Every structure is written in structure tokens, then in C-alpha cells.
């Protein structure tokens, strides 16, 4: 081998750089361990929120202090944090969310809230069409508008987009197509603005190594915040449009007579069966109004015999001047949707007297526990709106906002207004002395103080009795970052608690260590001293992989670790191919030096190694392009692993082997135990191909039959819904929990034991089609109430996802709306098809024969169908998740790559044996299969050992993923011998006959 000195220098320098880069992760972990110890020393009850607060306090104190001194340079905690290896959500906890910027709201804004009936109906139709379509919203709206208008009205009409706001871009003469083009530009601008606003907010949020990126032109923005623990805070920050308004307020005295009338009307409406069905009472009303409000309310007692408004809403009755308040009453969080429905009902709205006809009902921004602790209660306000629903003062007059403290040391948001706002605020406060004024952000009331006197200086505050410092900081952040051009709602989110993340790290370390030991032990057992050289190369390979990931700030996820461990098994393959070729050369009578040269040559092992790794690399690229989140992490580590494996197997191993050969060390490339393994094998594989066809055909037919009858268990990311992993203090029975939750959700959710007997995975589609920021909270509250008999003393605050947990609670959570679920499923289908097409073309290009491509693709289809069939047959009986989702698609594509790896090595040997010959004979094919059998079984066995180690010790969340890989490796090994090669042989014979 030439340039040995250069290769040694490169390997040493690369190793030093990798160790240097990884050292930052070690130092950062050391500091964070100290922060955890500090937090535990200051928190006696293991409260997750308190622990996070003290951890943050410690880390902030060392943020800019020297924590590492290497002699030639020093680093603060912030420095090493920027350079450490990034951990994904499944290892660190946090939230990954995809937000959809509302194109519908952008269109409404551009039309100046047009009331044109065709325009409004087209929007409504587009909403419905989007549920079952992959097209973007503007195209759907445009098609619906064309169908409805039939040329009677144009988009450029003054009542739609021919407004003063757009007069420089749209005039009445423009065609619908021209207007559509302009609208697309405006939408793109709005989405870009939304992206920048969100990025500004996230940068100020304080999470280390956040990620935000646009997803094509779909109006979707993906945000990943690893390490975020306060999930509620994050979701509010992301979805807040920052629409600040100042309103005059109706008091409870002004509005209470309307409530009594509305209560009677609601009772009439709820007598109707359809109304009762539409308004299912999901919670018991055992608690009296007195208990909830802590005051006498005899006139508003709930009649349990008949549902009414007061079944869900508990009015704050003013019986004296001292009881006058801007708070109209309270409701449980889960009942707010029902209260909204009733108060917006046309017959009930008609009961409003003329002086309060335009009352706009708004909820408080924050719920609080009821007196008995059984529910979260939230207050209702009414602001003095008008026909155009325009606030007295809008938020665009705010010049600056910051978090401060008031005279009682409570956190507040101080705001200063521009010149216009100062005049408006002075006028508004002058006209409302002794009355209440509400400060409203995104249609939630943050404060409604009494105006004691005029405020001429343009200064005001947002304050709340329960406002925390973090909330005040977030409000100031969104006001300074700017207003979103349209609402952005979370359509897909994945939340992993830090406790589950730490458990995943621990499980990964165990499986990683065991996998390495198994591979290292097997290589020494099989190849002796040469196996030791391969092991050294393998350890260097692992160092290089982690070094590269750390150097480029790549995110390491649980599937990513699985990809690294899988790379360990597959990287051995290159050494196995080389060593088997060297053994063949030695057996043919060549000397050790000549045998080594042949083994490492292109004509020897390198051709097969390069071909096999390129096919796997192509699969990795497809995964990376079409995958998201953890799947990208898996693909990245797979691709990095392939590159480093090639280098270490070809160059590092060669350096060690050459060094031993030059010193005259004996290298038989086997041990006394393995010496005669796979020697003198003469199996007639092709003669058994008809039997193999029957076996494979039977397996596929059974699998297809199962898929047609039993189907496949689609994951949340493919069908939409919410999925919670909930841990309990004691073992629970899944069927009992499902029955309990049936009352809370209306229909029984899917409940299955997830790992230990005290952990369940609960999947539901309850309210998944409903929009609104309160919906997620309502579903979570319903889940808590349904699980309360099993939660002991766990409070709702402790139950929610995020923060470290000692007892019961949500460990992880995923939500996927049906619209994006369809998109994910379609992307997965394209990923599989794209992979097959790319591989087909590569093999055709490499082997120059259609029969080779047909054989390889036939084997791949065979493997995919068998794995799908196994999942269809077993998903109801296996004690772990066997869902078909993004992770499963990653597993399938990995199986594709692995199967092709085997197949290409065999095809490469067939090509070698048939080179210069006119025909491919059965004897030559059998000879090629027998000569590569040792390599095939050896590689499959080492890979299986690795996969089994991960499967048994790698944590619950990837058991289904690993099971798919295990089945795939077994089936892929079989198909490369009994499907790919026979199909290639039969196709070749058919081609030869046609040529004659």
C-alpha cells in the first residue's frame, strides 16, 4: 500500500480532532451534573419545575465563567455548550413541532375581511377539501372560487382583493390567474415574516441549540427545542400572534341579567336530543358553585336534572357594590368549548340588550386550580366590542416592552407607546376613571385593572395575580419580536420528558456496550489476530463517527444511536469480505504477502465493498431527503458510518495487517475453532429455487391475506391523533384503563402496555379535527380525569409532560393532525419507491444486465412484503409497539439497503466468475454462492448480534423499529441466496432464449 505515512498522519490527526471535539461534551455533562446536584440539594420534594429552576440558576451563574482550562486556552460553560454534541429530543427531552401558518387568515387579511359570499364559501370549501388533499391551500381555494363564481365575479373585484391595500398590485382588469400569482407572492412574504418572527422569539427564549426551518412552500415551519422542559410555555410562545388590544370592560353587574336569561334559554335548547348529543357532558358537576367561587350564589344553583348554561359556567353574581368585578364567572377548562358554543348561539345572543349587544366574551390567559383541586378553572370577561370588532387601542402603538417588577416585587410587563398610542391611552384612561380596562393579548385577558386616573405619559403595564417571571418575559418577547401576520397553530408535535430522555441514554449505553463486546468477541473468535486488527479499526471507526457528529453539530437521536450500532455490525462486513478473500488466496497456495495484496485489491474485495456500500449510501440519502426529525438522524449516522467504515476497514486494517506481515507475524485469518468453517461447501442453491419460490410465495400470500383482513397498525404519524406514554406508580391493566377513558373521551382509546407493567401507551383521536389553542389542554385534562383513579396524589401540574418526574405522569406525547398525517404517509411512500428506482438504476448501470436489476428488486419487494406481513400477523400479540410509521419506513429502507448489500456482493462474485464467458451457467452461480456463503452468514450473524442487543436492552421506544430490522436481516439473508440470485438466473436464461 502506498502513502502509508500520509494515512497514518491523517488517522492520528483525525483521531486527535475527534477526541478534542468530544471532550466538550464530557465537560458540559460534568457541569450539568453539578447543576443537577445543586438543584436536588435545594429542592426537597423533587418538584420538576423547582428542580429545573435551580438547574437553570446554577448554569446561568457559570455561563460566562471559566469551567475548563486546557493550559493553552480557557472555556466558559457557554463556550463548551456551543461545541458539545447535540442530543435529540428522545435523548434530552424537549419539543419538536411543525406549525402551519394559516393561509386562510392571510387571504382574509388581504381581502380586508371581505364578506363576499362567493369568497367566503370558497374558503369554507377549501377548508373541507384540504382534509383529503395534498395540494396547497391557495390552489384549493382558487379551484373552489372558479367552480362557485363561474365567471360572475373575479378575484380582483373591489369587494374581494381589489382593495385600497392592494391597489398598487391588483386592479379590476387583472385576470384570476394574475391575481393568484400576486396572492402567492403576498403569502410567501407573510410566511417569511412569520418565520423571522418565530426565529426572533426562539432566539430570546434561551434554549441551547434550537432549530427552526421552513418546510418547502407549504406554509409550514418546523421548530425543535431540545432540552425545553416547560412545554406549556413553549407552545404559547410559538402560537401567540402577539395581537395586543386595549378594551373597555363590562362588569358582572352589567351582564348578570343576561346570564340568567341565557341560562333559561340554554336549558330549552339542551332539551333537544341533537343538542344534548352535540354537547356531551364529559365531566361530573359534583362540586357546588359555592365551593368553586368561595362565595354565596344561591340564585345560581345547578339543576342536575336538566343541563343548562350554569351546568358548565358558574356566574360571579354581584349582590353589592363591593362585589362588582370585571370577572363574569368561571368554568372548568374542559367546559370552555361548551360555554363558547352556548354564548355564540344565535338565539342566546339575541337575548343581549341593545347596550351590550356587541359584547365580546374572552377567557383569562391562565387557569387556576379549583378549591378542591379536582379541576382547572378559568375566568370569563366581556369587553365592549362594536360592529367592526375594532379595539379602542391596537398593539401597533407599542414602541417597547420589557419585564420588570412592581412595588410588591411581582413580575409585570412594562410598555411604552409611540406618539399616537400615548394620545389614545390618555383619552381612554380619562374616559374610564373608576372603571375597568382590559389588556388583551391574542384574545386572552391578561389583566383588567381599575383606572384610578388619566395616564398621559404613554406608559402602562400588563400584570396578573398569578403571572410568573417567565410569562412576563415571554409576553415582552412576543411584543418586541412583532406580530405574526397570521395565526400559526401546531399541527404536529412530539414532546419527550427529560426523565424518559435520561432513561433512553442509559439504555443506549447498555446496548451500545453489549453490541461492541459481542462484535469484538466474535471477530477474535473467528479470525484470531486478524480479528483483533479489525476490532482496532472498529473502535477507531466509532471514534471517527462521534467525532464527525460533534464537529458538525449534528443531532444525535435514539434512531441515530441505532444507526451507529447497526453500522458497527455492517462495518465488520468490509473486513469480513477482505479476510475471506485473503483466506481464499491462502488456500489456493499463494503466500501471505500476495494474499493480502489480492484481498485488498479492486479485483479482490474492494469492488464488492464499494458496490455494497454505495447501495446502502443511496438508501441513506433517500431517507435523509424524505425523512424528518429522528429519521434524518438515523440516515445521517448511517451515511457517516459508511464513509468512516470504508476508511477504517480499507486503510487502518491494512496498516495493521501490513505491519504484522512485515514483522513476520503468523496471520492464518482463522482460529483453531473456526479453521474449517464454511470450507468445501458445495450446495446446489439453484436446484432448490422452485422450493424457495413456493416458500416465498406462500409467505407473501399469507402476509397479503393478513394485511387484507387484519390490516396494519398505523402509527399516529400516519393516521393522525394523539399518543401519550403515561407512567404510573403501580402496575395497571390496559383494558381497565381503556374502559375508564371511554367515558372521558366518548369512545374507547387504544391502550397498550408499553414496556414495564406500570407504563401505558394511550392513543386517541378525541377532538383531533378541532382547532383552537384550548383543544390540546381540554384533551389532556380529560385524560387526567380519566386516569385519576390510578394516579394517587399526582396533581394535574405534575401530570403534564415536561420537567423531571419521580412519580406518575406523561413521559412523552405526540400529536399529528390528519392533514399532515396524509402528507407524511405520501412522503414515506415516495421514499420507498424512490429508493427502489435509484437502486434499480444503479445496479443496471454497474452490472450492465437487466436481469441483475430485476433479481435485486424482486428480492427487495420480497423482503418488504414479508416484513409487512409479519407486522400484520403479530402486531396484536407482541408485547411491544408494532406501528407502521416513519420509524418503520426507516427500518424498511434499511432492510432494503442491507438486503442489497448481500445481493451485490454475490452478484459481484458471479460477475467475476463469468467474466469472459458467453453464458451464466448454474455451476458458476452455485460456485459464487458457495464461495460467499461464509461472508454472508458471518456478516448476518454479527449484525443480528448487534440488533438483538439493542432489541433487548435499547429501550421500549425502538423495539418495534429493531424488530423490523431483525426480521429484515434474516429475510434479506435468505432472499439474497434464494430469491435475488435465482430470479436473476431465470431472467438471464429467458433473455438468452429471446436473443436466439
TrEMBL record:
Topology relative to the lipid bilayer, per the entry, is: Multi-pass membrane protein
Pfam families in the cross-refs: Sec_GG, SecD_1st, SecD_SecF_C, SecDF_P1_head
Provide the Protein export membrane protein SecD/SecF C-terminal domain boundaries.
Answer: 488-656, 810-988
| TM spans (from-to) | 7-28, 507-525, 532-552, 558-579, 600-627, 633-657, 691-712, 827-845, 852-875, 887-907, 937-955, 961-985
Q: Which residues does UniProt call coiled coil?
A: none
Is-annotated flag, keyword Transmembrane helix? yes
- Major subcellular location class: membrane
User: What InterPro entries does its record include?
Assistant: SecD (IPR005791), SecD/SecF_arch_bac (IPR022813), SecD/SecF_bac (IPR022645), SecD/SecF_CS (IPR022646), SecD_1st (IPR048631), SecD_SecF_C (IPR048634), SecD_SecF_C_bact (IPR055344), SecDF_P1_head (IPR054384)
SUPFAM superfamilies, alphabetized: Multidrug efflux transporter AcrB transmembrane domain
The chain positions of domain Protein translocase subunit SecDF P1 read: 192-249
Which keywords label this protein? Cell membrane, Membrane, Protein transport, Translocation, Transmembrane, Transmembrane helix, Transport
Protein location: Cell membrane
Residue ranges annotated for the SecDF P1 head subdomain domain, each copy included: 389-486
Against Gene3D superfamilies, the record matches this protein to: 3.30.1360.200, 3.30.70.3220, Multidrug efflux transporter AcrB transmembrane domain
The subunit structure is:
Forms a complex with SecF. Part of the essential Sec protein translocation apparatus which comprises SecA, SecYEG and auxiliary proteins SecDF. Other proteins may also be involved.
As for what it does, the entry says:
Part of the Sec protein translocase complex. Interacts with the SecYEG preprotein conducting channel. SecDF uses the proton motive force (PMF) to complete protein translocation after the ATP-dependent function of SecA.
Q: Which family does it belong to?
A: Belongs to the SecD/SecF family. SecD subfamily.
Which NCBIfam families is this protein grouped with?
2A0604s01, PRK13024.1-5, secD, transloc_SecF
Name of the protein in question: Multifunctional fusion protein
State the taxonomy lineage. Answer: Bacteria, Pseudomonadati, Bacteroidota, Flavobacteriia, Flavobacteriales
